[in-house]
Specification:
Layout: H1 2-21, H2 28-40, E1 44-47, H3 54-63, E2 69-73, H4 80-84, E3 85-90, E4 95-100, E5 107-111, H5 118-130, E6 132-135, E7 138-141, E8 147-152, H6 165-168, E9 173-175, H7 182-191, H8 197-200, H9 207-219, H10 224-238, E10 243-245, H11 249-265, H12 273-284, E11 289-290, H13 292-296, H14 301-311
Parallel strand pairs: 1-8, 1-9, 2-5, 5-8
Antiparallel strand pairs: 3-4, 6-7, 10-11
The structure holds adenosine-5'-diphosphate and magnesium ion.
Length: 320
């Protein structure tokens, strides 16, 4: 029984990836990893320069499911209550009642999150952590699933508030779009000669199929050897000369889950070291703080993660 459910989940994930691929040209591993985050019910940060399709990517994901979706544009004057909601006076009953804010949706696009004040950012991060909103001592649960997909532009310094590392840790993955190749960019122009493909998208998965993905991911078998490999990677980030702050235990958990999701996507019942290797950069890069010397020498988190993966011994054939 679990096998056929997993087969179905793998198919669901593939149709989501194909659907998003009708809008976003190229970027297949970014699209795939976004779908893996959805499958594990985890939050995602998309970080890149303007105009590379960040907002479009997340809108395409949202339109590929029937989950309730809301975009919140983060601006300097956005207040915490603009996200969470607020108590309003009901004139009929003369009582206060809670009016839900936009955060009460399944998928939130927190667009340009680094433009809002730290106070407003943390009100969203509190929702992500607790899965509920508390106003005047009363807690209101957020819907299931609840996923925040945030975008941020890393080169816009003036008037922005970069998320502190402790908050970055709440995002399972940081995705980088990167520029398209010349032929992809031409393809994008060709596709866009007609109507906007985003408007043509129809859902490829229903809410219950999305929720099923999470339990299918848990069915992917993890051997001790691969589990130890995950821990070796995160531990290595804590013992590197050029890293000031390494990956947390939360990062280990996330790396394991996302790697299981990749195995499921690829139709594998077992987690392999290659799945872990493939997911490590997106899971780890935003959680590492390099030492000033390493930054001065222009080392990057990706390069350091790459060298750790190259150095560590990969568990051999004894996988089960
Ligand atoms: N790889 C891509 N595939 C398809 N469209 C793209 C791609 N990159 C950029 N675009 C298009 O460029 C425009 C700007 O994208 P947008 O999502 O607003 O960028 P960002 O949020 O990164 O600033 C959109 O019309 C989008 O469709
Ligand atoms: Mg945008």
């Amino acid at each position: 029984m679990p096998l056929s459910a997993n087969h179905k989940s793998s198919k669901t994930m593939r149709s989501l990836v194909d659907n998003i691929g009708r809008v976003i040209v190229g970027k297949t591993s970014v699209i795939r990893n976004l779908v893996l985050a959805l499958a594990t019910g985890r939050h995602v940060l998309v970080e890149d320069v303007p105009g590379v399709g960040k907002t479009t990517l997340i809108k395409a994901l949202a339109r590929s499911t029937d989950l309730q979706f809301r975009r919140i544009q983060f601006t300097p004057d956005l207040l915490p209550a603009d996200i969470t909601g607020t108590s309003v006076l009901d004139t009929d009953s003369s009582e206060f009642r809670f009016r839900e804010g936009p955060v009460f949706h399944n998928v939130i696009l927190a667009d340009e999150i680094n433009r809002a004040s730290p106070k407003t950012q943390s009100s969203l991060l509190e929702c992500m952590q607790e899965g509920q909103v508390t106003v005047d001592g009363v807690s209101y649960p957020l819907p299931e699933p609840f996923l925040v997909m945030a975008t941020q532009n890393p080169i816009e310094y003036e008037g922005t508030f970069p998320l502190p590392e402790a908050q970055l840790d709440r995002f399972a993955l940081s995705l980088q779009m990167g520029y398209p190749t010349a032929s992809q960019e031409e393809e994008m122009l060709r596709v866009r000669r007609g109507a906007d493909p985003l408007d043509q998208l129809t859902p490829a998965a229903e809410r219950k199929e999305v929720l099923q993905l999470r339990s299918s991911v848990e069915q992917v078998h993890v051997s001790d050897a691969v589990l130890e490999y995950v821990v070796k990677i995160t531990q290595a980030t804590r013992n590197q000369d050029n890293i000031y702050l390494g990956a947390s235990p939360r990062a280990s958990l996330t790396l394991l889950k996302l790697s299981q999701a990749l195995a499921l996507y690829q139709g594998d019942d077992y987690l392999l070291p290659d799945h872990v290797k493939e997911m490590a950069p997106d899971v780890l890069r935003h959680r590492l703080i390099l030492t000033p010397e390493a930054r001065w020498e222009e080392h990057s988190p990706d390069e350091i993660i790459g060298s750790i993966l190259n150095r560590l011994q990969v568990p051999g054939a004894q996988l089960s």
